[in-house]
Write a structure and sequence with these properties.
alpha+beta, Beta-Lactamase, 5-stranded antiparallel sheet
Length: about 800
């Protein structure tokens, strides 16, 4: 009974909508002024924006738009004398974006909002849609939400205007949010909640389902939706026209529109049970009358619709197949691969457009031609053998390269791929042709380039190679080694390209560690590789080799190192001989310097001892003469006084010569000697000097002490002659097993790189003296910024201890 009642309600609603749309009504005659009539004449079509939502706007099976807003707009636009252009949108934001972009002129069924006032001009409300309270059918009357007990829960869709209103005005209610109006009604049926709140339009849709027939309207929350017609703000004249048209629309027609699309009754204080019983009996009688008339018509309509749908589906399938076939044929004809179907008798049965263009034939000319016209050497016997071989292969395919004969007699290099095919009762070989003219030209150019490279690499006086790596962390191998390896090391290139060999197999065992270390650093850093060391030939001959490579990334983690191994044996031996000669010269220089220092010390001792004794005796003899002859001969007294002065000057000269040859202060230690020398320099030049030496310093070997002292003397001499300094700082300190001396001045400085050969022999002498002592000499100077000299010598282990 309930199912029949639901079906009858749906049928009556559809019939009523047709009745409202097709009823004969008096035409609307709005009172437009001249300007409004002129505007309507200039705009015969108005764009109507619609939100697709039942029962306001929806599509039926024939794609026709129906709904309350559709009927209303048809009636209004008919009175305005314009044609509608319907524009559907999924929701209100999409409609408002379209209005802001000028894509619609007016829209029905909107509610006035503060945000919408910036876009729309709203008409007066033409329809009031209340929010209703729905519960299970009972004998009680309306429900007062303010008196509702706490144990009764009300379901409402969130977010919605009704939910916000109830939370704000009925704080006593226990609200349960739901995702939709249908979900709220289901919770009422499942007794999860007592009531549900939804608007009249949504309720009219949900009540079409038979499961909701036991539900009843039990109240109104007092929040109606006031529906208005909205026009764009930039068209005020259209807004006035819409207002006048709405005023001309009779209120009776709006009530009929409500009854058609929102067929609901509101609760009364009377008993709902008797009302629904009466309505059920009436509808049952009406259903009995209508069902009989519609049953046969409905059956015929369904049969006709099924046949029509089947025919339409079959037609669509044929059209899709034909379109797919045309697309496939277009793709085959316009591909870059020529396709030929060849029968067992070697005659062509099909050729696509690409094959015809490739071979220079007009469309259709290749069909029924023997394949020997494209390849003269392919006689019938050879063709049958080829047919048999391809047919018997498991994969049924074969590939090779030939020169095809084109229609104009020219040759075209082609890559041929054969594939065996059975189609229905026939067998074919499908021949795929690819023009490889450019590939063959590129291959010839590549072969010529490779031959040229091998020729150049073979004539280079060295071993050219390429070291490659596929990805980081993988094994490297020699992708190429020139044939010069046979002449240089006695091994052919293919032997050295083996993974277990390579150039490392030629490296001298004593130099293998440095070779592997330099190679590892180059591979990990993806940088250029340089190495120099000894290699062994096949006859165990030792050669000096120099490897220089350039790293080049190829993308995807691939790296190659292109390089040359040079034979530098002659240059290396000459270099070693030169180094040995320099070492011998340096040893000789050191020996000569040592001998000279020893000779200076010996001469200083002899001058000091021997000449000093003679001068002392001479001084005593002069004193004795002075005592014996004093006051007797005035001239003699003058001569004796002059002799005493000369003897004193000679004493001083002897001391100066002995000190210059070897200062006795060196016997007191290098620290005291340096401080003494700096003070003498300060007295002689009047240049302020700051000297810092350690208080307790071990006794140095004589050679190191003299060498360091001589370097200080030469440095101070250069300051006096060339620096033009105002002050000098001298520091002596010890760092672990190294003794350091620095001499810094604030003079005019110089650029060490600008020194020319043959100049600054003092600096050269200091550098050679430091090399003989096994130390280092460093000079830091810039023009206008002074000069600083650093001398560092390594102390012997015994001295350090």
């Amino acid at each position: 009974m309930k199912s029949a009642l639901s079906s009858l309600c749906l049928l009556l609603m559809l019939c009523a909508s047709t009745t409202w749309a097709d009823a004969t009504r008096l035409p609307l005659r709005p009172a437009y002024d001249a300007e409004q009539r002129a505007w309507l004449k200039a705009h015969p079509v108005l764009r109507v924006g619609l939100i697709q939502q039942a029962p306001w706007v929806q599509r039926v099976q024939n794609r026709q738009l129906v709904g309350a807003n559709i009927d209303l707009m048809k009636r209004l636009l008919e009175g305005m004398g314009v044609t509608p252009d319907w524009h559907l949108y999924p929701d209100l934001p999409a409609l408002e974006r379209a209005a802001a972009a000028g894509e619609v002129d007016l829209a029905p069924g909107l509610q006035q909002t503060p945000a919408g006032l910036r876009i729309w001009h709203y008409s007066m409300p033409y329809l009031r849609v209340p929010h209703l309270v729905v519960g299970e059918r009972s004998g009680s009357g309306s429900v007062d939400l303010d008196q509702l007990p706490l144990e009764q829960i009300v379901a409402v869709r969130v977010p919605s205007q009704a939910a916000e209103y109830l939370e704000r005005t009925h704080t006593n209610l226990r609200l349960k949010p739901t995702s939709s109006e249908r979900a709220a009604l289901l919770q009422v049926l499942n007794q999860e909640v007592s009531y549900a709140v939804l608007d009249e339009a949504s309720l009219s849709l949900q009540l079409r389902e038979s499961r909701f027939t036991n539900l009843s309207i039990v109240g109104d929350i007092g929040l109606p939706q006031l529906l208005r017609l909205a026009t764009r703000r930039d068209q005020p004249l259209l807004s006035d026209i819409v207002d006048r048209t709405l005023q001309a629309l009779p209120a009776r027609e709006l009530e009929e529109l409500r009854d058609t699309w929102l067929p609901l009754r509101y609760p009364q204080s009377t008993d709902f049970v008797g009302f629904w019983k009466t309505l059920t009996l009436f509808l049952f009688l009406l259903l009995t009358l209508v069902a009989t008339a519609l049953y046969r018509q409905r059956q015929q309509t369904r049969l006709l619709e099924r046949g029509l749908l089947g025919a339409r589906a079959q037609l669509d399938s044929h059209q899709q197949a034909a379109e797919a076939l045309r697309l496939s044929q277009f793709s085959i004809d316009n591909s870059t691969v020529g396709i030929l179907w060849v029968n067992w008798d070697s005659h062509l049965r099909y050729a696509n457009g690409a094959a015809e263009r490739m071979l220079g034939y007009r469309p259709g000319e290749l069909v029924d031609r023997p394949l020997s016209q494209l390849e003269p050497s392919l006689d019938m016997d050879r063709w049958l053998r080829l047919w048999k071989r391809v047919r018997e292969q498991e994969d049924g395919s074969s590939s090779f390269e030939i020169d095809c004969l084109r229609a104009d007699g020219s040759r075209m290099p082609a890559d041929v791929s054969l594939s065996f095919l059975r189609y229905r009762q026939a067998e074919y070989l499908v021949v795929f042709l690819s023009d490889v003219t450019e590939r063959r030209r590129a291959r010839a150019a590549l072969e010529e380039s490779e031959a040229r490279f091998k020729g150049i690499a073979g004539n280079v006086p060295g071993l050219v190679f390429r070291l490659g790596r596929a990805a980081p962390g993988q094994v490297v191998n020699f992708a190429y080694i020139s044939e010069a390896s046979q002449e240089m090391v006695g091994w052919p290139a293919r032997e050295l390209q083996r993974e277990e060999r390579g150039i490392r197999s030629l490296v001298h065992p004593q130099d293998l560690a440095s070779y592997l270390n330099s190679q590892t650093l180059a591979l990990e850093g993806e940088s250029d590789w340089y190495w120099q060391g000894r290699i062994l030939t096949r006859d165990d001959e030792v050669l000096w080799a120099d490897i220089r490579t350039t790293a080049r990334p190829l993308g995807g983690g691939r790296m190659v190192w292109d390089g040359i191994l040079w034979d530098i044996t002659e240059n290396k031996l000459a270099e070693l001989a030169l180094a040995d000669s320099r070492a011998r010269l340096r040893e000789l220089s050191a020996h000569l310097e040592s001998v000279r220092e020893e000779e200076k010390a010996r001469i200083a001792r002899e001058v000091h001892d021997e000449l000093g004794q003679v001068l002392t005796v001479l001084k005593l003899e002069t004193a004795m003469c002075e005592l014996a002859c004093a006051g007797q001969i005035p001239a003699l007294d003058e001569r004796l006084a002059s002799m005493k002065r000369l003897i004193a000057q000679l004493f001083q000269l002897v001391r100066d010569v002995a000190t210059a040859l070897r200062p006795p202060i060196l016997d007191a230690g290098i620290a005291s000697a340096i401080e003494w020398q700096v003070r003498r320099f300060e007295e002689r030049t009047q240049i302020p000097c700051l000297v810092e030496v350690p208080e307790h310093l071990m006794q140095l070997p004589d050679a190191q002490a003299i060498g360091l002292f001589r370097i200080l003397q030469e440095a101070l001499t250069n300051v006096m002659r060339h620096a033009g300094a105002h002050s000098v700082e001298v520091h002596l300190w010890q760092e672990d097993d190294t003794l350091c001396l620095s001499v810094a001045d604030d003079g005019k400085g110089f650029d060490p790189a600008q020194r020319k050969p043959g100049q600054s022999f003092g600096l050269v002498g200091m550098q050679e003296r430091m090399l003989m002592l096994g130390g280092q000499l460093q000079i830091d100077s810039r023009p206008g910024e002074g000069t600083t000299l650093y001398a560092r010598i390594t102390l012997d282990e015994e001295v350090t201890a």
